[in-house]
Amino acid sequence: xxxxxxxxxxxxxxxxxxxxxxxxxxxxxxxxxxxxxxxxxxxxxxxxxxxxxxxxxxxxxxxxxxxxxxxxxxxxxxxxxxxxxxxxxxxxxxxxxxxxxxxxxxxxxxxxxxxxxxxxxxxxxxxxxxxxxxxxxxxxxxxxxxxxxxxxxxxxxxxxxxxxxxxxxxxxxxxxxxxxxxxxxxxxxxxxxxxxxxxxxxxxxxxxxxxxxxxxxxxxxxxxxxxxxxxxxxxxxxxxxxxxxxxxxxxxxxxxxxxxxxxxxxxxxxxxxxxxxxxxxxxxxxxxxxxxxxxxxxxxxxxxxxxxxxxxxxxxxxxxxxxxxxxxxxxxxxxxxxxxxxxxxxxxxxxxxxxxxxxxxxxxxxxxxxxxxxxxxxxxxxxxxxxx
Amino acid sequence: xxxxxxxxxxxxxxxxxxxxxxxxxxxxxxxxxxxxxxxxxxxxxxxxxxxxxxxxxxxxxxxxxxxxxxxxxxxxxxxxxxxxxxxxxxxxxxxxxxxxxxxxxxxxxxxxxxxxxxxxxxxxxxx
Lengths: 388, 127
Known about the structure:
The complex is a heterodimer of chains A (388) and B (127). Helix content of chain A is 47%, strand content 14%.
Protein backbone atom coordinates (compact mmCIF):
# COMPACT_ATOMS: atom_id res chain seq x y z
CA UNK A 1 0.00 0.00 0.00
CA UNK A 2 1.49 3.35 -1.01
CA UNK A 3 1.72 6.35 1.29
CA UNK A 4 -0.84 8.20 -0.84
CA UNK A 5 -3.42 5.49 -0.18
CA UNK A 6 -2.74 5.38 3.55
CA UNK A 7 -5.13 6.59 6.12
CA UNK A 8 -3.46 8.95 8.48
CA UNK A 9 -4.64 10.33 11.81
CA UNK A 10 -3.84 13.98 12.52
CA UNK A 11 -1.90 14.06 15.77
CA UNK A 12 -1.79 17.73 16.56
CA UNK A 13 -0.92 19.43 19.83
CA UNK A 14 -4.55 19.23 20.92
CA UNK A 15 -4.25 15.47 21.35
CA UNK A 16 -4.81 14.67 25.00
CA UNK A 17 -2.24 11.94 25.62
CA UNK A 18 1.29 12.55 26.84
CA UNK A 19 3.44 10.05 25.01
CA UNK A 20 1.11 8.29 22.66
CA UNK A 21 0.86 7.16 19.95
CA UNK A 22 3.68 4.73 19.74
CA UNK A 23 5.09 3.27 16.55
CA UNK A 24 5.34 -0.48 16.40
CA UNK A 25 7.59 -2.36 14.02
CA UNK A 26 6.26 -5.87 13.89
CA UNK A 27 8.41 -8.76 12.68
CA UNK A 28 6.29 -11.43 11.03
CA UNK A 29 6.51 -15.02 9.98
CA UNK A 30 3.51 -15.23 7.70
CA UNK A 31 0.70 -13.90 9.86
CA UNK A 32 2.41 -14.74 13.15
CA UNK A 33 4.22 -12.08 15.11
CA UNK A 34 7.83 -12.99 15.81
CA UNK A 35 8.92 -9.82 17.57
CA UNK A 36 7.95 -6.21 17.90
CA UNK A 37 10.02 -3.02 18.12
CA UNK A 38 8.39 -0.25 20.06
CA UNK A 39 8.89 3.40 19.25
CA UNK A 40 7.26 6.22 21.18
CA UNK A 41 7.64 9.94 21.58
CA UNK A 42 5.47 11.26 18.80
CA UNK A 43 3.55 13.42 21.21
CA UNK A 44 6.41 14.60 23.41
CA UNK A 45 5.69 18.21 24.36
CA UNK A 46 8.49 19.02 26.78
CA UNK A 47 6.14 19.33 29.75
CA UNK A 48 8.85 18.63 32.33
CA UNK A 49 11.01 21.43 30.93
CA UNK A 50 8.03 23.79 30.82
CA UNK A 51 7.17 23.01 34.44
CA UNK A 52 10.58 24.30 35.55
CA UNK A 53 9.86 27.68 34.00
CA UNK A 54 6.50 28.36 35.66
CA UNK A 55 5.34 28.90 39.21
CA UNK A 56 3.89 26.06 41.26
CA UNK A 57 0.35 27.31 40.80
CA UNK A 58 0.81 27.95 37.09
CA UNK A 59 2.18 24.41 36.75
CA UNK A 60 -1.04 23.03 38.19
CA UNK A 61 -2.93 24.27 35.13
CA UNK A 62 -0.32 22.89 32.75
CA UNK A 63 -0.38 19.50 34.49
CA UNK A 64 -4.16 19.41 34.11
CA UNK A 65 -3.54 19.39 30.35
CA UNK A 66 -1.11 16.43 30.31
CA UNK A 67 -3.89 13.93 29.77
CA UNK A 68 -7.48 14.47 28.82
CA UNK A 69 -8.65 11.18 30.25
CA UNK A 70 -6.85 11.16 33.58
CA UNK A 71 -6.26 14.85 34.29
CA UNK A 72 -7.49 14.56 37.87
CA UNK A 73 -4.96 11.96 39.02
CA UNK A 74 -2.13 14.07 37.55
CA UNK A 75 -3.12 17.16 39.51
CA UNK A 76 -3.90 15.03 42.57
CA UNK A 77 -0.35 13.63 42.53
CA UNK A 78 1.31 16.96 41.76
CA UNK A 79 -0.66 18.87 44.41
CA UNK A 80 -0.03 16.03 46.87
CA UNK A 81 3.73 16.29 46.28
CA UNK A 82 3.79 20.08 46.62
CA UNK A 83 1.66 19.90 49.79
CA UNK A 84 4.13 17.36 51.21
CA UNK A 85 6.99 19.77 50.49
CA UNK A 86 5.09 22.70 52.01
CA UNK A 87 4.05 20.49 54.97
CA UNK A 88 0.41 21.41 54.49
CA UNK A 89 -2.48 19.17 55.49
CA UNK A 90 -5.52 19.80 53.35
CA UNK A 91 -9.07 19.85 54.79
CA UNK A 92 -10.80 16.48 55.27
CA UNK A 93 -13.67 17.42 52.95
CA UNK A 94 -11.20 18.21 50.17
CA UNK A 95 -9.61 14.75 50.57
CA UNK A 96 -12.96 13.05 50.03
CA UNK A 97 -13.81 15.26 47.05
CA UNK A 98 -10.43 14.45 45.49
CA UNK A 99 -11.16 10.75 45.92
CA UNK A 100 -14.66 11.05 44.43
CA UNK A 101 -13.34 12.82 41.35
CA UNK A 102 -10.45 10.33 41.01
CA UNK A 103 -12.90 7.41 41.13
CA UNK A 104 -15.32 9.05 38.70
CA UNK A 105 -12.33 9.48 36.41
CA UNK A 106 -11.54 5.77 36.75
CA UNK A 107 -15.17 4.98 35.92
CA UNK A 108 -15.20 6.94 32.69
CA UNK A 109 -11.68 5.85 31.74
CA UNK A 110 -12.48 2.14 32.16
CA UNK A 111 -15.84 2.51 30.41
CA UNK A 112 -14.02 4.21 27.56
CA UNK A 113 -11.70 1.19 27.46
CA UNK A 114 -14.63 -1.23 27.42
CA UNK A 115 -15.92 0.60 24.34
CA UNK A 116 -12.52 0.59 22.64
CA UNK A 117 -12.08 -3.13 23.40
CA UNK A 118 -15.45 -3.84 21.78
CA UNK A 119 -14.55 -1.71 18.79
CA UNK A 120 -11.15 -3.36 18.32
CA UNK A 121 -12.62 -6.85 18.20
CA UNK A 122 -15.30 -5.77 15.76
CA UNK A 123 -18.13 -5.76 18.29
CA UNK A 124 -19.38 -2.24 17.74
CA UNK A 125 -22.54 -2.69 19.82
CA UNK A 126 -20.42 -2.90 22.96
CA UNK A 127 -18.57 0.21 21.84
CA UNK A 128 -21.80 2.15 21.37
CA UNK A 129 -23.38 0.97 24.62
CA UNK A 130 -20.29 1.47 26.78
CA UNK A 131 -19.77 4.98 25.48
CA UNK A 132 -23.46 5.75 26.00
CA UNK A 133 -23.14 4.65 29.62
CA UNK A 134 -19.92 6.60 29.96
CA UNK A 135 -21.98 9.70 29.27
CA UNK A 136 -23.73 9.23 32.63
CA UNK A 137 -20.33 9.72 34.30
CA UNK A 138 -19.32 12.56 32.00
CA UNK A 139 -22.59 14.38 32.70
CA UNK A 140 -22.23 14.11 36.45
CA UNK A 141 -18.61 15.27 36.21
CA UNK A 142 -19.80 18.27 34.20
CA UNK A 143 -22.44 19.05 36.80
CA UNK A 144 -19.89 18.93 39.62
CA UNK A 145 -16.94 20.65 37.97
CA UNK A 146 -18.34 22.47 34.95
CA UNK A 147 -16.18 20.39 32.61
CA UNK A 148 -16.47 17.00 30.93
CA UNK A 149 -12.69 16.64 30.83
CA UNK A 150 -9.97 18.65 32.60
CA UNK A 151 -12.23 19.12 35.61
CA UNK A 152 -9.77 21.47 37.28
CA UNK A 153 -11.00 20.39 40.69
CA UNK A 154 -7.69 19.91 42.50
CA UNK A 155 -5.57 22.84 43.52
CA UNK A 156 -2.55 23.19 45.76
CA UNK A 157 -4.07 23.21 49.25
CA UNK A 158 -7.38 21.51 48.47
CA UNK A 159 -10.12 21.54 45.87
CA UNK A 160 -11.76 24.35 43.95
CA UNK A 161 -15.40 23.27 43.97
CA UNK A 162 -17.73 21.64 46.45
CA UNK A 163 -20.14 18.74 45.94
CA UNK A 164 -23.43 20.09 47.25
CA UNK A 165 -26.16 17.95 48.81
CA UNK A 166 -28.28 18.02 45.65
CA UNK A 167 -25.29 17.05 43.48
CA UNK A 168 -24.45 14.26 45.91
CA UNK A 169 -27.96 12.90 45.46
CA UNK A 170 -27.61 13.05 41.70
CA UNK A 171 -24.26 11.32 41.98
CA UNK A 172 -25.83 8.52 44.05
CA UNK A 173 -28.47 7.98 41.36
CA UNK A 174 -25.86 8.07 38.57
CA UNK A 175 -23.60 5.42 40.11
CA UNK A 176 -26.60 3.20 40.87
CA UNK A 177 -27.37 3.26 37.15
CA UNK A 178 -23.73 2.59 36.28
CA UNK A 179 -23.57 -0.35 38.69
CA UNK A 180 -26.40 -2.14 36.88
CA UNK A 181 -24.66 -1.61 33.55
CA UNK A 182 -21.32 -2.91 34.84
CA UNK A 183 -22.90 -6.23 35.85
CA UNK A 184 -24.22 -6.45 32.31
CA UNK A 185 -20.74 -5.84 30.82
CA UNK A 186 -19.15 -8.41 33.12
CA UNK A 187 -21.70 -10.89 31.75
CA UNK A 188 -20.96 -9.85 28.17
CA UNK A 189 -17.18 -10.11 28.54
CA UNK A 190 -17.26 -13.48 30.32
CA UNK A 191 -20.14 -15.21 28.52
CA UNK A 192 -20.53 -13.85 25.01
CA UNK A 193 -18.95 -16.34 22.62
CA UNK A 194 -17.97 -13.66 20.05
CA UNK A 195 -15.94 -11.76 22.63
CA UNK A 196 -14.52 -14.85 24.31
CA UNK A 197 -13.17 -16.12 20.99
CA UNK A 198 -11.11 -12.95 20.64
CA UNK A 199 -10.06 -12.39 24.25
CA UNK A 200 -9.62 -15.80 25.91
CA UNK A 201 -6.11 -17.17 25.59
CA UNK A 202 -4.96 -14.14 23.56
CA UNK A 203 -2.25 -11.68 24.54
CA UNK A 204 -0.87 -13.73 27.42
CA UNK A 205 1.21 -11.84 29.96
CA UNK A 206 2.63 -14.20 32.57
CA UNK A 207 3.20 -13.08 36.13
CA UNK A 208 6.92 -13.59 35.58
CA UNK A 209 7.00 -11.30 32.54
CA UNK A 210 4.85 -8.68 34.24
CA UNK A 211 7.25 -8.59 37.16
CA UNK A 212 10.27 -8.65 34.88
CA UNK A 213 9.16 -5.50 33.04
CA UNK A 214 7.81 -3.73 36.16
CA UNK A 215 4.28 -3.59 34.76
CA UNK A 216 1.64 -1.66 36.69
CA UNK A 217 -2.10 -1.24 37.09
CA UNK A 218 -4.88 -3.40 35.68
CA UNK A 219 -2.41 -4.85 33.15
CA UNK A 220 -0.35 -6.33 36.00
CA UNK A 221 -3.41 -7.23 38.07
CA UNK A 222 -4.70 -9.18 35.07
CA UNK A 223 -1.60 -11.33 35.58
CA UNK A 224 -2.43 -11.93 39.22
CA UNK A 225 -0.10 -9.33 40.75
CA UNK A 226 -1.31 -7.28 43.70
CA UNK A 227 -0.13 -3.75 42.99
CA UNK A 228 -2.86 -1.27 43.82
CA UNK A 229 -1.21 1.83 45.29
CA UNK A 230 -4.50 2.79 46.95
CA UNK A 231 -4.01 -0.30 49.14
CA UNK A 232 -0.22 -0.59 49.30
CA UNK A 233 0.76 3.05 49.91
CA UNK A 234 -2.56 4.48 50.88
CA UNK A 235 -3.10 8.20 50.34
CA UNK A 236 -5.90 10.69 51.04
CA UNK A 237 -8.55 8.70 52.98
CA UNK A 238 -8.37 5.37 51.13
CA UNK A 239 -7.29 3.61 54.34
CA UNK A 240 -10.72 4.37 55.87
CA UNK A 241 -12.65 2.99 52.89
CA UNK A 242 -13.74 -0.59 52.47
CA UNK A 243 -12.89 -1.82 48.96
CA UNK A 244 -11.20 -4.81 47.37
CA UNK A 245 -8.15 -5.02 45.16
CA UNK A 246 -9.16 -6.90 42.03
CA UNK A 247 -6.84 -9.41 40.42
CA UNK A 248 -7.48 -12.16 37.92
CA UNK A 249 -5.20 -15.00 36.97
CA UNK A 250 -6.10 -16.10 33.46
CA UNK A 251 -3.34 -13.79 32.16
CA UNK A 252 -5.09 -12.98 28.86
CA UNK A 253 -7.11 -10.07 27.49
CA UNK A 254 -10.23 -11.41 29.20
CA UNK A 255 -8.36 -11.29 32.49
CA UNK A 256 -7.49 -7.61 32.03
CA UNK A 257 -11.09 -6.89 30.99
CA UNK A 258 -12.50 -8.61 34.07
CA UNK A 259 -10.09 -6.69 36.32
CA UNK A 260 -11.17 -3.36 34.84
CA UNK A 261 -14.86 -4.17 34.98
CA UNK A 262 -14.76 -5.40 38.57
CA UNK A 263 -12.69 -2.35 39.50
CA UNK A 264 -15.59 -0.24 38.34
CA UNK A 265 -17.78 -1.84 40.99
CA UNK A 266 -15.13 -1.05 43.60
CA UNK A 267 -15.00 2.55 42.38
CA UNK A 268 -18.74 3.01 42.80
CA UNK A 269 -18.41 1.44 46.27
CA UNK A 270 -15.68 3.97 47.13
CA UNK A 271 -17.75 6.91 45.83
CA UNK A 272 -20.78 5.88 47.90
CA UNK A 273 -18.67 5.62 51.07
CA UNK A 274 -16.97 8.95 50.37
CA UNK A 275 -20.32 10.69 49.92
CA UNK A 276 -21.56 9.25 53.23
CA UNK A 277 -18.35 9.92 55.16
CA UNK A 278 -17.54 13.37 53.79
CA UNK A 279 -17.52 15.87 56.68
CA UNK A 280 -18.57 19.51 56.38
CA UNK A 281 -15.81 22.07 56.28
CA UNK A 282 -13.46 24.15 54.20
CA UNK A 283 -12.42 23.17 50.72
CA UNK A 284 -8.86 24.46 50.76
CA UNK A 285 -6.13 26.05 52.80
CA UNK A 286 -3.72 28.74 51.71
CA UNK A 287 -0.32 27.47 50.66
CA UNK A 288 2.54 29.98 50.38
CA UNK A 289 3.84 30.75 46.88
CA UNK A 290 7.40 30.00 48.01
CA UNK A 291 7.84 26.30 48.66
CA UNK A 292 10.60 25.31 51.13
CA UNK A 293 13.71 23.62 49.76
CA UNK A 294 13.45 19.87 49.53
CA UNK A 295 12.46 16.90 47.44
CA UNK A 296 9.61 14.46 47.61
CA UNK A 297 7.67 11.88 45.66
CA UNK A 298 3.99 11.15 45.40
CA UNK A 299 2.62 8.11 43.70
CA UNK A 300 -0.99 7.21 43.19
CA UNK A 301 -3.19 4.72 41.38
CA UNK A 302 -4.25 6.20 38.05
CA UNK A 303 -6.83 4.35 35.93
CA UNK A 304 -3.95 2.70 34.04
CA UNK A 305 -1.73 2.04 37.03
CA UNK A 306 0.87 3.64 39.22
CA UNK A 307 1.70 7.26 38.45
CA UNK A 308 4.73 8.90 40.04
CA UNK A 309 5.57 12.54 40.61
CA UNK A 310 8.97 13.62 41.90
CA UNK A 311 9.17 17.29 42.83
CA UNK A 312 12.27 19.15 43.96
CA UNK A 313 12.16 22.68 45.29
CA UNK A 314 15.11 25.06 45.58
CA UNK A 315 13.19 27.38 47.89
CA UNK A 316 11.70 29.60 45.19
CA UNK A 317 8.24 29.92 43.67
CA UNK A 318 9.20 27.65 40.76
CA UNK A 319 10.02 23.94 41.01
CA UNK A 320 13.62 23.02 40.27
CA UNK A 321 12.60 19.69 38.82
CA UNK A 322 9.35 17.85 38.27
CA UNK A 323 9.61 14.27 37.06
CA UNK A 324 6.50 12.48 35.86
CA UNK A 325 6.28 8.75 35.21
CA UNK A 326 2.95 7.85 33.68
CA UNK A 327 1.64 4.25 33.76
CA UNK A 328 1.54 3.80 29.99
CA UNK A 329 5.33 4.29 29.77
CA UNK A 330 5.74 1.39 32.17
CA UNK A 331 3.17 -0.79 30.44
CA UNK A 332 4.34 -0.37 26.86
CA UNK A 333 7.12 -2.93 27.40
CA UNK A 334 4.51 -5.59 28.20
CA UNK A 335 3.51 -5.55 24.53
CA UNK A 336 6.67 -7.47 23.65
CA UNK A 337 5.76 -10.70 25.48
CA UNK A 338 2.04 -10.22 24.78
CA UNK A 339 2.40 -9.97 21.02
CA UNK A 340 4.93 -12.76 20.56
CA UNK A 341 3.50 -15.72 18.59
CA UNK A 342 0.13 -14.02 18.22
CA UNK A 343 -1.75 -13.47 14.98
CA UNK A 344 -1.36 -10.09 13.31
CA UNK A 345 -5.16 -9.71 13.29
CA UNK A 346 -5.15 -9.83 17.10
CA UNK A 347 -2.64 -7.00 17.36
CA UNK A 348 -5.13 -4.12 17.72
CA UNK A 349 -6.96 -5.68 20.66
CA UNK A 350 -3.71 -6.79 22.32
CA UNK A 351 -2.28 -3.28 22.05
CA UNK A 352 -5.59 -1.87 23.32
CA UNK A 353 -5.61 -4.35 26.22
CA UNK A 354 -2.91 -2.39 28.07
CA UNK A 355 -5.25 0.61 27.74
CA UNK A 356 -2.85 3.08 26.20
CA UNK A 357 -4.29 6.57 26.22
CA UNK A 358 -4.97 6.22 22.53
CA UNK A 359 -5.42 3.12 20.41
CA UNK A 360 -2.25 3.44 18.46
CA UNK A 361 -2.55 1.45 15.28
CA UNK A 362 -2.18 4.47 13.05
CA UNK A 363 0.86 3.20 11.17
CA UNK A 364 2.73 -0.08 11.32
CA UNK A 365 5.66 -1.45 9.33
CA UNK A 366 5.49 -5.16 8.61
CA UNK A 367 8.63 -7.16 8.02
CA UNK A 368 8.25 -10.67 6.59
CA UNK A 369 11.11 -12.63 8.12
CA UNK A 370 11.11 -15.16 5.27
CA UNK A 371 11.25 -12.77 2.33
CA UNK A 372 12.81 -9.81 4.12
CA UNK A 373 10.32 -7.51 2.40
CA UNK A 374 8.74 -4.67 4.31
CA UNK A 375 5.52 -2.79 3.73
CA UNK A 376 3.80 -0.03 5.59
CA UNK A 377 0.16 -0.63 6.33
CA UNK A 378 -2.44 1.41 8.08
CA UNK A 379 -5.38 1.14 10.42
CA UNK A 380 -7.76 0.31 7.57
CA UNK A 381 -5.70 -2.76 6.63
CA UNK A 382 -5.57 -4.02 10.20
CA UNK A 383 -9.29 -3.54 10.63
CA UNK A 384 -9.98 -5.43 7.42
CA UNK A 385 -7.99 -8.32 8.93
CA UNK A 386 -9.83 -8.33 12.20
CA UNK A 387 -13.24 -8.38 10.51
CA UNK A 388 -12.39 -11.39 8.38
CA UNK B 1 15.22 -3.87 56.11
CA UNK B 2 18.57 -3.58 57.87
CA UNK B 3 20.39 -4.17 54.62
CA UNK B 4 19.28 -0.71 53.47
CA UNK B 5 21.56 0.93 56.04
CA UNK B 6 24.52 -0.97 54.63
CA UNK B 7 24.17 0.16 51.03
CA UNK B 8 24.49 3.87 51.67
CA UNK B 9 23.60 6.86 53.77
CA UNK B 10 19.88 7.18 54.52
CA UNK B 11 19.44 10.93 54.30
CA UNK B 12 15.66 11.17 54.45
CA UNK B 13 12.67 9.18 55.60
CA UNK B 14 9.17 10.36 54.85
CA UNK B 15 6.22 8.04 55.42
CA UNK B 16 6.91 4.96 53.32
CA UNK B 17 9.64 6.68 51.32
CA UNK B 18 13.33 6.13 52.05
CA UNK B 19 16.03 8.19 50.39
CA UNK B 20 19.55 6.75 50.26
CA UNK B 21 22.66 8.36 48.84
CA UNK B 22 25.31 6.11 47.35
CA UNK B 23 28.61 6.52 45.56
CA UNK B 24 28.35 5.95 41.81
CA UNK B 25 31.10 3.32 42.01
CA UNK B 26 28.81 1.24 44.25
CA UNK B 27 25.83 1.46 41.92
CA UNK B 28 26.13 -2.00 40.39
CA UNK B 29 26.62 -3.73 43.74
CA UNK B 30 23.70 -1.74 45.20
CA UNK B 31 21.43 -2.73 42.35
CA UNK B 32 22.44 -6.34 42.83
CA UNK B 33 21.72 -6.13 46.56
CA UNK B 34 18.27 -4.70 45.83
CA UNK B 35 17.58 -7.47 43.36
CA UNK B 36 18.83 -10.10 45.79
CA UNK B 37 16.36 -8.80 48.36
CA UNK B 38 13.47 -9.74 46.10
CA UNK B 39 12.72 -6.23 44.91
CA UNK B 40 11.95 -6.42 41.23
CA UNK B 41 9.92 -3.32 40.49
CA UNK B 42 11.53 -0.14 39.26
CA UNK B 43 9.07 2.73 39.11
CA UNK B 44 11.20 5.41 37.48
CA UNK B 45 14.62 6.97 37.04
CA UNK B 46 14.88 10.71 37.66
CA UNK B 47 17.78 12.76 36.36
CA UNK B 48 18.49 16.22 37.73
CA UNK B 49 21.07 18.73 36.57
CA UNK B 50 22.15 20.57 39.73
CA UNK B 51 24.60 22.74 37.72
CA UNK B 52 27.48 21.15 39.69
CA UNK B 53 26.77 17.53 38.90
CA UNK B 54 24.07 15.31 37.53
CA UNK B 55 22.04 13.52 40.14
CA UNK B 56 20.29 10.30 39.26
CA UNK B 57 17.58 8.83 41.44
CA UNK B 58 16.39 5.26 40.99
CA UNK B 59 12.92 4.74 42.44
CA UNK B 60 12.26 1.14 43.50
CA UNK B 61 8.87 0.10 44.81
CA UNK B 62 8.92 -2.86 47.17
CA UNK B 63 5.16 -3.14 47.48
CA UNK B 64 5.27 -1.37 50.84
CA UNK B 65 8.08 1.16 50.55
CA UNK B 66 9.59 3.40 47.91
CA UNK B 67 13.36 3.12 48.01
CA UNK B 68 14.97 6.09 46.30
CA UNK B 69 18.62 5.49 45.50
CA UNK B 70 20.43 8.70 44.67
CA UNK B 71 23.82 8.94 43.06
CA UNK B 72 25.72 11.76 41.42
CA UNK B 73 28.00 11.81 38.39
CA UNK B 74 30.39 14.26 36.80
CA UNK B 75 28.50 16.81 34.76
CA UNK B 76 31.22 17.09 32.12
CA UNK B 77 31.64 13.37 31.65
CA UNK B 78 28.30 11.87 32.65
CA UNK B 79 28.68 8.12 32.43
CA UNK B 80 26.80 5.38 34.13
CA UNK B 81 26.25 1.67 33.61
CA UNK B 82 22.93 0.17 32.66
CA UNK B 83 20.83 -1.64 35.25
CA UNK B 84 18.63 -3.40 32.70
CA UNK B 85 20.39 -6.72 33.34
CA UNK B 86 18.74 -6.81 36.77
CA UNK B 87 15.77 -4.59 35.96
CA UNK B 88 14.67 -4.94 32.30
CA UNK B 89 11.81 -2.53 33.04
CA UNK B 90 14.36 0.29 33.31
CA UNK B 91 15.08 0.21 29.58
CA UNK B 92 12.90 3.14 28.57
CA UNK B 93 13.79 5.16 31.67
CA UNK B 94 17.50 4.89 30.86
CA UNK B 95 16.88 5.94 27.27
CA UNK B 96 14.94 8.95 28.55
CA UNK B 97 17.77 9.82 30.96
CA UNK B 98 20.32 9.71 28.14
CA UNK B 99 18.18 11.80 25.85
CA UNK B 100 17.13 14.47 28.32
CA UNK B 101 20.38 15.00 30.20
CA UNK B 102 23.08 13.58 27.96
CA UNK B 103 24.03 10.82 30.37
CA UNK B 104 25.89 8.05 28.61
CA UNK B 105 24.33 4.85 29.82
CA UNK B 106 26.78 2.08 28.99
CA UNK B 107 24.98 -0.98 27.71
CA UNK B 108 21.68 0.79 27.06
CA UNK B 109 20.00 1.22 23.68
CA UNK B 110 21.28 4.35 22.00
CA UNK B 111 18.25 5.56 20.10
CA UNK B 112 15.88 8.46 20.28
CA UNK B 113 12.99 7.69 22.59
CA UNK B 114 10.94 10.80 23.15
CA UNK B 115 12.63 13.54 21.17
CA UNK B 116 12.75 14.02 17.44
CA UNK B 117 16.11 14.15 15.68
CA UNK B 118 15.80 17.91 15.21
CA UNK B 119 14.87 18.57 18.87
CA UNK B 120 17.19 20.58 21.15
CA UNK B 121 20.01 18.49 22.58
CA UNK B 122 19.67 17.50 26.25
CA UNK B 123 16.77 19.85 27.03
CA UNK B 124 16.81 19.25 30.78
CA UNK B 125 20.41 20.46 31.12
CA UNK B 126 20.59 23.80 32.93
CA UNK B 127 23.18 25.40 30.67
